[in-house]
Specification:
Two copies of one chain form a homodimer.
Chain A (H helix, E strand, L loop, with lengths): L5 H14 L7 H8 L3 H13 L3 E4 L5 E4 L8 H8 L17 H26 L3 H13 L1
Antiparallel strand pairs in A: 1-2
Helix pairs in contact in A: 1-2, 1-3, 1-4, 1-6, 2-3, 4-5
Chain A binds a DNA duplex (30 and 30 nucleotides) through helix 3.
DNA sequence: TATGTATGTAACAAACCTAGTTACACATAT
DNA sequence: ATATGTGTAACTAGGTTTGTTACATACATA
């Protein structure tokens, strides 16, 4: 169950920045494209900056900039910057420790979940922001 | 972000059933192992039964049973039975349709998300309930 | 240096989802 | 008939996400 849309918004923001790297873009400008509030954009830009994917300039003419070329930004990096990396959650309550299954199930599940999560991450790593930007441009031209 | 623990609970329930297929197990008995309320177990058993993974018997001596051998139940089936299959959510609000990026980003993202989700599913499919049951038994013996 | 601009972040509300709880109708074995 | 156990609805409490507002701070520029 996908509860957060932060990854989608983050990729949108980065694609927006990638489309014109000549100047900084204000959160207000980006928010208009995303269809949300500038503050929401700044919140996510905060995560992206902390992950080293963007930088920001204050004051007049300021805004957000891509910190490196879109070819060098993978979707995995974006995902890790803004989303919880646990795709599979364990029990909310602790299983009975007096039951053999209750005692042993979580580590077993964790390790199997880890292989699936790793496969997911590996696939995300295959796509770069450049790929997204290119596909968007192609779709827009059609 | 993993908001639901249904998959973990479902696997726990099925592992419990797999450990003793000779008789039906009551939701109360299973709930004690999981550490939750019998009604929560019955709710998830309902999903599992709808997916054809378990069956239930009413009345005295009743309870839940595995509908087939644990070797023939993959974790992917369990996941699909109880969880939303979209690991990556799109924007909550609709992006600006007057912006090229806003118009094109979602299908592009969807298709890239689909490859990552597929990789996740493929990995889950590699593990059967039997694998889980075996690992749990091994861990319990140690 | 003063001014205007844009960010970063906190605080709060609204909407939504999950899991726990209770209750009860219905099916089934004995 | 009776006791047992499921299936499901309804409700609550708790947590999370996003939208919104507000404001201190940093920076460019005149």
């Amino acid at each position: 169950m996908p509860t957060s849309s932060r990854f989608a918004v983050a990729v949108h923001i980065l694609t927006f920045l990638a489309a014109d790297r000549k100047r900084a873009h204000r959160s207000e400008e980006i928010a208009a494209s995303v269809g949300t509030n500038p503050s929401v954009v700044r919140r996510i830009l905060g995560d992206l900056a902390r992950a080293g994917l963007t930088s920001s300039q204050l004051g007049k003419g300021g805004g957000a900039l891509l910190a490196r070329g879109p070819k060098k930004i993978s979707l995995l990096e974006v995902f890790c910057a803004v989303e919880d990396q646990n795709l599979i959650a364990m029990h909310r309550t602790r299983p009975s420790q007096s039951c053999e299954i209750g005692r042993a199930i979580q580590p077993v599940l964790q390790s199997m979940a880890a292989t699936a999560e790793q496969a997911f991450f590996d696939a995300l790593e295959e796509h770069s922001l450049k790929d997204v930007a290119r596909s968007v441009k192609t779709a827009a031209a059609a």
